[in-house]
Amino acid sequence: MILRRNRRAARRTAFTLVEMLVVVAIIVVLAGIAVPTTLYVLDGAKRDAAQSQCKHLAQAVHMYMADQTNNPSGAVPTSWDEVINDPKIGLNADALKDPWGNQYQLVVPTQHNSKDGFDVLCTCGGGDPVGSW
Questions:
Q1: Is 67:85 a contact under the CB 8 Å cutoff?
Q2: Residue among 133, 106, 130 at smallest CA distance from 48
Q3: Domain count, the chain
Q4: Which structural domain, as residue segments, surrounds residue 110?
Q5: What is the pLDDT of residues 71-96, one digit of tens each?
Q6: Which end of the chain has fewer CB atoms surrounding its CB within 10 Å, N or C?
Q7: Are 117 and 109 in contact (CB under 8 A)?
Q8: pTM (2 d.p.)
Q9: For residue range 31-52, what is the model confidence (pLDDT) as tens digits?
């Protein structure tokens, strides 16, 4: 009689297959909720970083325009090469990559009615433009 009780106690110490499957199912459901939320937050952070970088690049273009003594007032550079080649600005080509790995665009004349006469923009991962306006 004592041996039977010990055998039953020994058999019951492990988890059953059903219990393990329930735990795995709960983990999968929680991961299914957490992963899309995390990806949404990361995409929003990339978008915010891109917009901030667009504003900094627009300031660099303003500095370039103010530094050019031979440019008539209000002359806007037509490409990033003009801004990068100016040693006083301190802008390198690596700064022209957005968080998605694409190059920021310098658009002259403005497409978003910017008072500056130019736009600095990038196209996000979803295709929506983010810019300095």
A1: no
A2: 130
A3: 1
A4: 2-131
A5: 665 577 888 888 888 777 888 888 88
A6: N
A7: yes
A8: 0.68
A9: 999 999 998 898 889 889 988 9
